[in-house]
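HUMAN: Quick job: go over this next protein and say how the chain folds.
***
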Amino acid sequence: MYLVRSAVILALMASQAVAEEPAGARRPRTDDELKFWLENMLVWHRFETQEVTLATGLTTEEIDAAINRLGISRKRPPRDKDAPLVVLPYPGGRHPRIGFLDGAVNPQRETKVSIFAPWADGGYAVADVPEAIWHETSAGRKLLYLAHTHVPTIWDEQKSKLEPLEWTKVEAKGKIAWQVERTLPNKVVFGTSVAPHADHVEMHMWLTNGTPETLGGLVVQNCVMLKGLVGFDQQTNDNKLLQKPYVACHNSDKTRWIITAWEPCQRPWANAPCPCLHSDPKFPDCEPGKTVRIRGWLSFFEGKDIEAELKRIDGIGWRTN
């Protein structure tokens, strides 16, 4: 009887703990996952304990115990000048926007990566790739995918739930990249690859059409949010430069810049309340069984001659290579 009663009590405690976890929290399943996410949040993103709880569902006691048991230090390792830029999956738990929060309720972390500035204590930008994918249907323009809650997607209308995903770290030919791929209920597959280099981040996105119909009007919203990038978080567009396909933002004295671009770019723009940058591309029309691709760029620049820097970037040939 005692054993049965104990089992019941433990089950009730477990169900209560689950019920009390913050909405959207993702509890690490193994010690390797736990160490990765704690280092991600505490060392790199410099989260407060409450933000770690919101991201993981772990209590303060569990977090402190894991830090001690896994030997986690909050000191960031130095980055060699020629090393790739630091890119990590965004952990959630802290909203990546400052404003226009009603336009991004419950942001999903599986489309977001943090790209850390190369200068000391520069913080990070969050690239949402993709934030949204639209396509044209006989009933009008519809959302194939949205990385938060705002405008209903076709899956919301059908009450079809999309399962959460995570970024995967892959290595090919000595290069590291973060990748994620999702298969939608209609067998459309889309994915993103984010590969850091010493002076820029290379991004690729693909879409495979598993439907019997040609997909058209495949407009993508790719958002670079600046809340965490020190000196770039002013809620204004006065510090932005739009020069298709490039969208850039500078600090107060115009000596540091963040630059992003996608090809083919349909619309360069910026949203001051967030604040964020957009170089929104468009996939070519995609026939059944075919795959279409687009490519993107993100980099940081120290200097005042932004026009010369954009010309240099264009000369690399990233749009076609």
